[in-house]
Amino acid sequence: MAFANLHHYSPNVEELIDSEPLMVPPSMPLRNVVDYMSHAEGRSCAQQSPPRETPFETAPQSSCALIVQEQQLLGIFTERDLVRLTAGGQSIEGVFIADAMSVPLVTLPVHKFRDVFTTLALMRQEKIRHLPVEDDQGHFVGLITTETLRKAIQPINLLGLWSVGQVMIDGVIWMRPNTPLIDIAQKMSEHAISCIVIAQPLASTQNHHAVTPLGIITERDIVQYQVLALNLHRLTAEMVMSTPLFCAHPEDNLWAVHEQMGNRRIRRLVVISETVHGRELQGIVTQSDLLRSFDPIELFSLTKSLHQDVCRLEAEKVDLLQKQNRHLEQEVQHRTAELEQLNQSLEIHVEQRTAALEAARQKADQANRAKSEFLASMSHELRTPLNAILGFSQLMSEDQAISTQQQNTLQIINRSGEHLLELINDVLDMSKIEAGRTTLNPADFNLHGLLQSLYDMFNLKAQSKGLKLALKLDDHLPQFIHGDESKLRQVLINLIGNAIKFTEAGEVSITAGMAEQTGDGELSLTFAVEDSGPGIAPDEVERIFDPFIQAKSSQAQQGTGLGLAISAQFVRLMKGDISVCSKLSRGSIFRFTIGCQTPLSSVAPRADLPQVMGLAPGQPTYRILVVEDHLDSQLLLQSWLTSVGFEVKTANNGREAVSQFQAWHPHLIWMDMRMPVMDGMQATRAIRALVQESESQAPEPVILALTASVFEENREKILSAGCNKFVRKPYKIQEIYRLMADFLEIEYLYRSSAQSSTELPEPELSRDCFQQLPSTWISRLRTAAMQLDIQAIEASLEELTLDHPSIKTKIQKLANDFRFDVILELTQGLEATV
Fold first, then answer.
1. What are residue 654's phi and psi, to 5 degrees?
2. Which of 201, 373, 407, 737 is most buried, judging by how many CB atoms fall within 10 Å of its CB?
3. Which residues contact 35 (CB under 8 A, 6 or more apart)?
4. How confident is the model at residue 378 (pLDDT cuts 50, 70, 90)?
5. What percent of the residues of the chain are helix, what percent strand, and what percent coil, each to the nearest 5?
6. What global pTM score does this model have?
């Protein structure tokens, strides 16, 4: 419509009023008034004669009664007034309408009427739905209601510009079907509302606020039940609620709602949304909500803007539309048929693909959860007993009373345990990588110190094979960096170890240098490990970084085939790349880069603690609580701590730990994280809560976590539960003592250098050492080594004279370490020929 013609749709007061509402005298009994209101409302009753004689005319669908005497308006009685009386338990028998009517009245003098919008504003301000109109002499002339307003302004078809969701009442009060009717009337009276939605919660969803509507009870229904003299205490909502429901959706426009209200002669619609669980209640929209959408300022601006846009578009496109109209109609019909067919096909295909993808996603999520649970369980089940094995062997090796043979046996146990731990870590690291659970743990560290320590670690092994190990550092390589030292160390150990393992002669070199440095502290470092070994075949190079893949030249060696796969994943995690260049019989070069940063603070290397003998004198008696459900691990930690002078108590689960804390108040608690009854994190939270609630002056305990978990994200969970720090199993005794000293400022007594039983570095064992031995004896030694027979090797060693004690000791050590490969390498070609 044109903006200039908007005034034609603003009705005058005569068009807004109902000139023949239900009017009664003040002397009429309330029961009769309610009967007339019910008769006027019900369509089935409208065809019958009124229940009682009355001098007044009644209009259909009256929601109120006006009390009039000699053309003077005295008061008004509405459906809400009747609900209020019903909710209060007041009978309508024997009561006159003059005693129940609402006074004083809000009225509208005819001469003060301006327009429909100011009338709407007055009714909203006074919170009323009925507005009597009087002439200049104070005589009643008619009644304005929300219904008459809605009908009068219906030519303004701007309702189509608003949606139901913009004006609906979303805080709907609902009650269950088994609710007594009297409770519903009381709820309506309490909240001054005109209806209650009858609904029940959706059973198939976890949202407790989601309900599905079943019916509705309005003020007018209460009027009907009072007319029929029904017992509201015995009736329930499901017996009398109005069904079926007339509903709208939040996306519907208000014009459709307006049309539906007019056609069905109703005053409200329930707003629902269709979900996979069924119809869910969203709100309710009433005639009053429709009227609230007619804000004068918004209507003015919106109408003007729409008028301008329409005029402009019509002027620009009218010629083009006329020329193409016929052609487009034919094309649209043809394309519509094709699109409908294609749309049906696509919908079927999309539904099938969506269902398949959802099933695949659920299956993948389930598999990932199962894998994570398996990793956590295996980490705990493997590392916990290994912790006891390595721990007790460390404890026994410190005993000065054991013999040299027993010391050698314990060293074998330790080395075998460490090797087993490496294999377990490889498998778990690969599983973590595949599950996406591996993360970086950057920190400042000494890069030069790391490389030098690796050189020292592998140099003796290289010399035992007659190899030269070279370390070459670029002049621009920074000494300190900020990165993940542990993962860099593991990559280098894998590459250097493989190079020495598979190289029989020549040299292995390690080089490190600076690749790039930016102004924001970002660094790119490059590393290379080169060997003169057998090389890798071209067809194997592409798969050398795949899990469980080994080159043919290395299949006779020990290993899981996971080292290079793990190294490649770690390098990529450190924002780098890894590659290999190899030629058969000439060697291989493994190169990789990593991203890191300049150090955030100064880095100071920390020296290892010497062997602890006990507590220094003059210190308090420290109470230590060990919480561990595995008896072996519990006994190990208890033995370590009591041996140096700590007072120790134990607990088998978290609940016992909380009880011990309350009774004993330990200074420090070693808390295992995975236990029955109550786990370590629950126990830690409980202890921290008890400390906060306690009014005693006892110091808050240090809680150090013990965990076999290999997942880095568990670090944050453990620390957020209240633990000061955590140690992974299997742990070492020096690590335990150091952490306790950090948190309790403990001073230890250490074993002096004169008392130390530290082994001196053994002299190198080379091929020259075997050239002075009989070739027939070497043949017997090689046969025993090829058969992996330690007893035969020991028998051969017994034949050696005392002239070769150092050689005898070194060969015995190689046999004890199961290094039969080194014995065969050093003696190759020296055996007796037949």
1. -65, -35
2. 737
3. 50, 51, 52, 227
4. low
5. 50, 20, 35
6. 0.37
